[in-house]
Amino acid sequence: MRQLFRQSIFSALARHRLLLGVVVSVTLIQITVSLWGIQAVQQQVVHSVSAIVQSRVAQLENNFASLSGNLKRRLVTQTQLSLFEQALSENTLERIQARHQLIDNLFYITGTSTSDHLLFYYLADSDEFLTGVHSNYIPFSQQNAIFNEIRRRIADGYQPASNSSRWILLQADERYYALLLYRYQNMWVGGCIPADILIQPLNDIYLDGQSIPVLFTAEGELAAGGNALTAAGLLSENALRYHGTFWQDGKRWLAVEPVISDEGFQIKLFLKGYGQFEMIIFLQAGVLFLVALMMGIVILTMSYTQKRILRPLRLFTERLKTFDPQKLLLLDTETQIFELAAANEQFNNLIREIKRLRIGAYEQELKIQKTQMDYMQLQIKPHFFLNSLNLIHTMAQKGDTGGIALLSEATAKYLRYIFQSDAATLPLTQELEHIRDYLSIMQLRYPERFSCEIVSEPDAEVQALPPLILQTFVENAVKHGMRPDTRLEITLSALCEDIPGTDGSKKAFLTIFITDNGYGFPASFLSEWAAGRQLERTGGQHIGIANAAQRLQLAYGDRAKLQ
Questions:
Q1: CA 402 – CA 328 distance, rounded (Å)
Q2: Most-buried pick from 72, 238, 322, 369 (CB within 10 A)?
Q3: How far apart are CA 61 and CA 160, in angstroms?
Q4: Dihedral (C-alpha) 389, 393, 396, 402: value to the nearest 10 degrees?
Q5: How far apart (Å, rounded) are the C-alpha atoms in residues 130 and 119?
Q6: Best CA proximity match to 544, nearest among 478, 493, 476
Q7: Are 212 and 268 in contact (CB under 8 A)?
Q8: C-alpha span between 432 and 438 (Å, rounded)
């Protein structure tokens, strides 16, 4: 049993260690898988975002290519060339009609009077710009600045190839514009769009407000998106140096650089708050780490509990198992646990109390045995037995066979009740019948000297009480109560009545009254009995009453009262 008890304790500790090892292993695996997953997801996200950005950029390039083709066709057709010549004619009407026709051709490209682009013709010989299609994003106040910058570039020798579709960036009034020019002899056709409008379709490419597109010139100067970049916490002057994933002010960023076929500018997209999903993975790993840490604390707690609590408790339990109720030895358990020490002390107090109760019970048993011996002594030495035999002898001499028959029958019943009354209690009706047998004998002995009346309620007759209790008092009244000049009258009544208790509630008691008109007890006897003391039993005197009182006390305790 001791070995099984120890195994159950150590097995619980081993299970906790095994659980800790499993949690630590799972945590390490989770962290490894999380790191691998983060890297894989990063690559997938970068690839996905790059693909989306590249798709948007390709769409922009397709729009540019379509516009470039339309502008190029404005130069190469014979009709268009004829219109250019007529636009420079000295004939006013012819010149005006040709210029209106050229502007109508620009409307043909866009289909409306406004578009995202500013479309125009430039007549180098007359240094004039013809435009009828205005941009939604370029006010009239800025058009002159753009046209002046174009004149400056042409004057500086800008010569685009006739088959080139390359867009260039020019700056006018601190704003960059994407510009496309085609030339045939001294005739130019072109389109212009603000750089920040050019990259606007890339703003919603990744979450709302989380993507910041920027545009650089071929020389690496920031042309658009700088304000949004600065507002997001990035330095615009370092925007060109940011590549891939990087940290800035505690936030994760991703820089995506799509491939652009046009070498006139460069686009880069910054994703703000990139990698937030990684925090969830790290949080999961952190939770597992906390679980492993808590399991470690549990193991340490279990070790402390095993040493400081379970071991003393096990020793205390083993000593309880080996405890011998016959020896009643005190336990000596050394422990620093207050509750266990208190339990050990209470158990020792219980052992002391058991010893005391055993001694008291042994002494009580001795008293009972002594009382029983006195009781048996009373049974063995009743004087009226001899007197009854003498009376039978006298009746036989006189030939009173009827009296002998009555006396013999009464005496036999009396003796039968005495020798068979070894039960602890008997019904009151049997005790009263025995008293009647006794009184019938005494009336045969003293026919004119006394009389007796017995009255009992039916409820009282079924109550139980120790045998020969009432016999003692009736016999005492007959023996010591007769007077030579007075007829002795004895009355015995038994009834059930409700008597108020100490707590105020009423309780049912069996009440028995035995009265006679004899001498009565001396006053000294009554005072001793009222004080709860017994008379000294010497010379065989006062044995009956003392035995009756002690038997009542042993049987009923405080529930019995003798007066």
A1: 67
A2: 72
A3: 18
A4: -20
A5: 9
A6: 476
A7: no
A8: 10
From 60, 249, 64, 74, select the one nearest 166 (Cα to Cα): 64
CA–CA separation, 2 and 315 (whole Å): 10
Q: Is the pLDDT of residue 56 over 50?
A: yes
- Token couple for 102: 């050229």
d(CA 457, CA 493): 8
Residue 7, both tokens: 């195994």
For 137-154, the pLDDT digits (tens) are 788 878 888 888 888 888
In angstroms, the CA 84 to CA 327 distance is 133
CB 217 within 8 A of CB 223: yes
CB within 8 Å of 378: residues ≥ 6 apart: 472, 543, 544, 547
Decide if 16 contacts 298 (C-beta within 8 A). yes
Q: What is the per-residue pLDDT across 181-235, written as a single tens digit (0 to 9) for each?
A: 888 777 888 888 888 887 877 776 665 657 788 888 877 788 888 788 777 778 7
State the Cα–Cα distance between residues 477 and 452, nearest whole angstrom.
Answer: 11
Q: Which two tokens stand for residue 432?
A: 């009263």
Angle CA(199)–CA(203)–CA(204) in degrees, nearest 5?
A: 140
How far apart CA 424 and CA 248 sit, in angstroms, is 101
Q: How far apart are the first and last CA of the chain?
A: 60
Backbone angles phi, psi at 456, to 5 degrees: -145, 145
Are 478 and 470 in contact by the 8 Å Cβ rule? The answer is no
445 close to 383: Cβ distance less than 8 angstroms: no
State the CB neighbour count (10 A cutoff) for residue 243: 11
CB 50, CB 258: distance < 8 Å = yes
pLDDT for the residue numbered 165:
64
Q: Which neighbouring-strand residues pair with 247?
A: 252
DSSP per-residue string spanning 132-192: --EETTS-HHHHHHHHHHHHHHHHTT----TT----EEEEETTEEEEEEEEEETTEEEEEE
| Residue in the structure block whose two tokens are 């005790």 | 431
3-state class (DSSP) for residue 209: coil
Residues 188, 124 contacting (CB under 8 angstroms): yes
Calpha distance 310→419 (Å, rounded): 62
DSSP 486: B
Strand 450-456 relative to strand 426-427: parallel, antiparallel, unpaired?
unpaired
Helical residues (DSSP H) of 178-310, grouped into ranges: 195-198, 226-231, 276-305
SS (H, E, C) 293-310: HHHHHHHHHHHHHHHHHH
Mean pLDDT within 529-552: 69
Residues in the chain: 563
- Ramachandran sector of residue 156 (left: φ over 0; alpha: ψ -120 to 50; beta: rest): alpha
Rounded Cα distance between 478 and 413, Å, is 19
Question: Could you give the CA distance from residue 222 to residue 243 in angstroms, rounded to a whole number?
Answer: 15
